Amino acid sequence: MLERLGHTVEFPPSQTCCGQMHYNTGYQAEALPLLSRFVDGFEHAEAVCVPSASCVAMMREHYVMMAEAMGDASLLARVKALLPRIYEFSELLVNFLKVEDVGAYYPHSVVYHPSCHSLRMLHVGDAPKKLLRKVRGLNLIEMPNATQCCGFGGTFAIKNAEVSAAMLSEKSRDVLNTNAEVCTALDNSCLMQIYGGLHRQRAGVQTLHLAEILAHTEATEDLAAGGPEGEHAKEHEAAQ
Amino acid sequence: MSVRVGKTATAPAFPIAAGGALEDSQLRRNVKHATEVIRAKRGRVVEEAADWEQLRQAGHDIKAHTLRHLDQYLQQFEANCERAGGKVHWARDADEANSIILGLLRGYQATEVIKVKTMTSDEIGLNRALEAAKIEPVETDLADMIIQLGADEPSHIVVPALHKNRAEIREIFLDKMGLDHLGTEATDLTDAARHYLREKFLRVEIGLSGANFAIADTGGVCVVESEGNGRMCLTLPDVLITLVGIEKVIPGFQDLEVYLQTLPRSATGERMNPYNSIWTGVHAGDGPQHFHVVLLDNGRTEMLANDLERETLDCIRCGACLNACPVYRETGGHAYGSIYSGPIGAILSPQLQSMEHSRSLPYASSLCGACYEVCPVKINIPELLIHLRGKVVRTDQSTLAGALNPESLAMKFASRAFQSTSVYVAAQRLARLGQAPFVRKGMIGPLPGMFGGWTKFRDLKAIPKHSFRDWWKDHEKARQKSGGAGPVRSATNASDASRRAASSETKEGASHG
């Protein structure tokens, strides 16, 4: 999608993880070595696009603190120089590139889940909805109780699996009540939780990252019909 | 010193207690209904306060300043309270506070004491100490009375009986008040409570209260409430004992301007509390003639040293974070095993006890941030939860068993893998192979070990054969093949410096632009 808009996209292959899982679970010492690795890999870029709001929140909330904790003045300076150029995906489009219509076509009904970190830490506001409203054929449906957490919360989903599941059951109900075909968000982690619950119920609703919807045009394959079963079916057909 | 917070020392870990609460459909229904009602009311009265964000900031700043000079303000409070005729007592911990209060009650030959608005007395286990000394504590706040009659525990810091609905409360009243008949309307229940309590108010000579604020420049103490039962407790008895945590002191009367706007709006969704009682010392012929203030530390001083931890003591006990919390919404307050429940309880209970108890509470949150958003004194609860998780992990890792537990080992391995691209890519490949026995129709089935927590309730997409990295390589190759012409350069394209860096990073770098 970014290339379609005329931008040069690079994927630094050295990249791994922002360290959020470690940091938020209490393994802050284990997250520290990942900081310099991230800065090395990305500081040459004019803008860094991070298609995960919670990773951006991790960077903005903790990277300066981490560099300070390491007592590394030069790393701290590099972190401070890099941070203003880090954008969450919808921020990059709407705030930095000033584009709302990315020329996408997606003829399905979609419900948007505002993930907690995009909503309360990045304050992305309406940016994702502005992008979705400009997608041709797309029917954007409002979700009740949209701002309530889906129950993912990183390792919370495993450490407090039952409470997480109870929270998910409310989110699943809200998604299903909209009768939408697809639920989208700025975080694949939340979507993994939501899809995990919906698929367990065989609810027949897909989850897609906003980028996947915005990448879609008349020329691309329909993702709503996809999902793992779709892929599996295709593989099965191919084998026959 | 023996710091104690209610029954936390023997409480089960949060996931276990929460599992029990989740089975109670009536409780979950009651909690959801009550928190939704308060949230909606709060939303309306916060919206109409045009300077809400400034009020929050002011509330935060006043507390931050006070806690940095806590010693001075506490001494100022003591001097002014005693000048007005009160007596101030200092209690290092729960036991000392209990023995001070018991000593006072024995001195006044008490056999009964009427109590109101003192969660701190639950913190120190006062009622048990009183009962052991054959002094009967009578809770007079309506919700606290329901809890006491029902031999229950508070489940919310503002609305302690929030987990009970009207029908359940009626059953308790019928059973414990010795009534033959009781209607089912709310007014029937409040009438019954009034008859029951009025007799106590008029008879019992000693009152015991908590306080929302202790005012340093006047020596006065303030309680806000909705029922008026507090006002009765504070004005009718001959003796009044007020138990206050040391963090409740504020510098001046003027500072109430901020908190008496933010507290009622945050707590019950009211612009102002129906009853705002402020009493200062003793006045001949008017109100209690003997007034004692017990200032309680019980672990609070230990929290002053660290900037972030100290923020916990800003709390004005409004309960807005409980009502906003999606975890509390599902479990209610009992699962936290402490009288301080919800997000604030999850950071306060373990810290008061130097992280020795309530260690599972910092993990009882999805870090969604709803608590921070509504907090009227801007306590960064999510950040504190993360900070306390760090303390739990570091303590655990200092023992051999803790360092060798599967989670710690997995986290250490993951950190290693994330530090090397080759190990990371190899680990991805290994996971793809390892998942094979569990994959069916592209989805992962029940997993063993800690990941079982995931698959018990949700499905999981299998790691695809073709990773994004693989796709990216193909994509780059295809782009090279098609003449090496990268996409059209836009006005916001990479700078020369970034292109040079990009060239050294990727083989395809030369083809860019």
Would you give an account of this structure?
The complex is a heterodimer of chains A (240) and B (513). Chain A is built from 12 helices and 6 strands. By secondary structure, chain A is an alpha/beta fold. Chain A has 2 domains: 76 residues, no CATH class; 131 residues, 3-Layer(aba) Sandwich (Rossmann fold), CATH 3.40.50. Chain A has a 4-stranded parallel β-sheet, sandwiched between helices. Chain A has a two-stranded parallel sheet with strand order 1-2. In chain A, helix 10 links the parallel strand 5 and strand 6. In chain A, helix 3 packs antiparallel against helix 4, helix 5 packs across helix 7 and helix 9 packs across helix 10. The longest helix of chain A is centred in the first third of the chain and has 18 residues. Chain B is of the alpha/beta class. A 6-stranded parallel β-sheet of chain B has the order 1-10-7-4-2-3, with helices on both faces. Chain B has a 4-stranded mixed β-sheet with strand order 8-5-6-9, with helices on both faces. In chain B, strands 11-12-13 form a 3-stranded antiparallel β-sheet, with no helix packed on it. The relative contact order of chain B is 0.12. Chains A and B meet through helix 1, helix 2, helix 6, helix 8 and helix 9 of A and helix 1, helix 15, helix 17, helix 18 and helix 20 of B.
Short descriptors:
heterodimer, A: 240 residues, alpha/beta, Rossmann fold, 2 domains, 4-stranded parallel β-sheet, two-stranded parallel ribbon, disordered C terminus, B: 513 residues, Fumarate Reductase Iron-sulfur Protein, Chain B, domain 2, 3 domains, 6-stranded parallel β-sheet, 4-stranded mixed β-sheet, 13 strands, 49% helix, elongated
